[in-house]
User: What shape does this take?
Amino acid sequence: MSLTPTPDGVLLVDKAAGLTSHDVVALVRRRLQIKKVGHCGTLDPIATGLLLLTLGRGTKIQDLLMSEDKEYAGTLSLGATTDTQDRAGQILEEKPVPPLTEEAVRAAFEKYRGDFYQMPPMVSAIKQGGVPLYKLARQGKTVEREPRLVHVYSYRIGRIASPEIDFSVNCSKGFYVRTYAHDIGETLGCGAHLKNLRRIRSGRFPVAGAVTVEELKNADPVNILARILTLPEVSRMRGA
Assistant: This one.
């Protein structure tokens, strides 16, 4: 039995590290006793931050919400490339990190601003012949991928403390921040991988005030249900 009639709307969740996006969906289904739950934009297990969950008839606007731009804060680590392009993977190659000026770092980031093509990583949820690429990668297979046109609206470089660089990026849908870190490392000549990542915004929805995983696990389900944005509220927030 459901707690209430199935709510229609969107729940903003602040995903914790170590969980898959599907783990969060399963947790919400179980805690709120709702079957129809989807998510907008996969976050890798190492990533934290905003995950939009669609509930009930809210799943009908899932594609619309996924198409909006997103903002991330992250840290890249220079000197090592990995097979997943983040710290969860196996190291493929290590190179010494040369002394880097702020100008050199900025020039590398500037190369990946505006429109450009990005090669999706093998470890990704993109499907080829109906099979997600990450499943093929687990079998040791590498297949041809089509580069995808992506867009970086803006970026900000924070702390530069070799081998690490903190940054934030405001980007289009379908953008892989792992690949962004990898490509910047290639441009700098020493390779890089993504160490940490946090999604801080998706469209008009910020992570501030999102329900935490701890709250999902421990709070009264009635209080969580009260945090669901109704479809009219979602429409107003989007400015639609």
Observations:
- DSSP finds eight helices and 15 strands in the chain.
- Residues 9-67+205-237 form a domain with the Pseudouridine synthase fold (CATH 3.30.2350.10).
